[in-house]
């Protein structure tokens, strides 16, 4: 069914337009739009990793969410800006301007329906800047719209207990954590008999890159022919289940925080003499 990992009762497109129109407190209801990508993830993982993880983790969080916390999921954006992987078959990429337009126009639709809180959990490391630009554009257009782009795996979770220090510093793609999560979310797509390790050397300039990650632009083939940038060999389904459980717990708290919070509200922009007119009406409050 279309809802995938998102619980059917939390899937906004399953409501009629009249049911959406009649929802209570839409201004505080959190709309969750997972954003992923379709791109190579080495010989052992499917190209759908980023889309599966963003939708799967947030689907699990929505499943756990207390009933009193109003939130709904949308169908994920499964195609992203993946041009750093375009040398590998199976990578399907949008340009940055196309993804920017897609996210912005969906955001406009969310706002037009009466919702004022949009969460963009992002599963692909190659596009956070695009989502940040979309969020900023929507905020400029609508002074009461809170749009939060955030990488899906950067909330507290158990993965740090299972990966090496080298993996923590240098792994970027198709490594231990992604492999373990896919074992939990879509085990039939994981081929560990094909898994290879490929941890890149640290970037030569410690001044430009204290942690050793590349400070320059890169493409996946810069690190070798496998497409892997990390070490997936020690990943297990049990680790994946624990990472999924702890990560989704963190997202339950994040969605709850967003539901409860009130943030800055300003008038719609009025442009005169090159300056924006308006004033802050409501100060930040949390909880």
Basic shape: globular
Uncertain parts = 272-287
* CATH homologous superfamily caption: Creatininase
| Total discrete domains | 1
CATH fold type: Rossmann fold
Please provide the ordered H/E string of secondary-structure elements.
HEHEHEHEHHHEEEE
CATH level-1 class:
Alpha Beta
Number of helices: 7
Beta-strand percentage? 5-15%
Let me know the average pLDDT. 93
Output the strand order for the largest sheet. Answer: 2-1-3-4
Provide the fold topology.
Layout: H1 17-21, E1 30-32, H2 49-64, E2 71-73, H3 96-112, E3 117-122, H4 128-141, E4 146-151, H5 165-170, H6 176-185, H7 237-260, E5 265-266, E6 270-272, E7 275-277, E8 280-282
Parallel strand pairs: 1-2, 1-3, 3-4
Antiparallel strand pairs: 5-8, 6-7
Explained architecture:
- The structure is a single chain.
- The protein has 287 residues and is of the alpha/beta class.
- The chain has one domain (8-262): Creatininase (Rossmann fold, 3-Layer(aba) Sandwich), CATH 3.40.50.10310.
- Helix content is 32%, strand content 10%.
- The protein has seven helices and eight strands.
- It has a four-stranded parallel β-sheet, with helices on both faces. Strands 5-8 form a two-stranded antiparallel sheet. The chain has a two-stranded antiparallel ribbon with strand order 6-7.
- Helix 2 (49-64) crosses helix 7 (237-260).
- The longest helix has 24 residues, at 237-260.
Notable characteristics:
287 residues, alpha/beta, Rossmann fold, 4-stranded parallel β-sheet, two-stranded antiparallel sheet, 7 helices, 8 strands, 32% helix, disordered C terminus
């Amino acid at each position: 069914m279309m809802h995938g990992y998102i619980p059917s009762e939390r899937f906004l497109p399953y409501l009629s337009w009249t049911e959406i129109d009649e929802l209570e407190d839409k201004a505080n209801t959190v709309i969750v739009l997972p954003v992923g990508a379709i791109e190579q993830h080495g010989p052992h993982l499917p190209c759908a990793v980023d889309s599966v993880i963003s939708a799967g983790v947030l689907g699990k969080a929505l499943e756990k969410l207390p009933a009193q916390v109003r939130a709904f999921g949308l169908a994920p954006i499964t195609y992203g800006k993946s041009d750093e992987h375009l040398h590998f078959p199976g990578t399907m990429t949008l340009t940055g301007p196309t993804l920017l337009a897609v996210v912005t126009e969906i955001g406009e639709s969310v706002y037009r329906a009466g919702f004022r809180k949009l969460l963009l959990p992002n599963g692909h490391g190659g596009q956070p800047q695009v989502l940040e630009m979309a969020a900023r554009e929507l905020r400029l257009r609508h002074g009461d719209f809170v749009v939060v782009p955030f990488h899906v795996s950067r909330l507290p979770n158990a993965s740090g207990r299972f990966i090496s220090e080298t993996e923590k510093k240098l792994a970027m793609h198709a490594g231990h954590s992604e492999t373990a999560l896919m074992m939990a979310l879509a085990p039939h797509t994981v081929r560990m008999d094909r898994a290879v390790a490929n941890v890149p050397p640290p970037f030569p300039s410690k001044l430009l890159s204290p942690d050793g990650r590349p400070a320059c632009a890169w493409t996946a083939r810069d690190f070798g022919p496998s497409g892997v940038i990390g070490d997936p060999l020690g990943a297990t389904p049990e680790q994946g289940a624990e990472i999924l459980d702890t990560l989704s717990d963190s997202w339950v708290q994040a969605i709850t925080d967003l539901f409860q919070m009130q943030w800055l509200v300003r008038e719609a922009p009025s442009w005169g003499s090159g300056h924006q007119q308006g004033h802050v009406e409501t100060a930040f409050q949390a909880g």
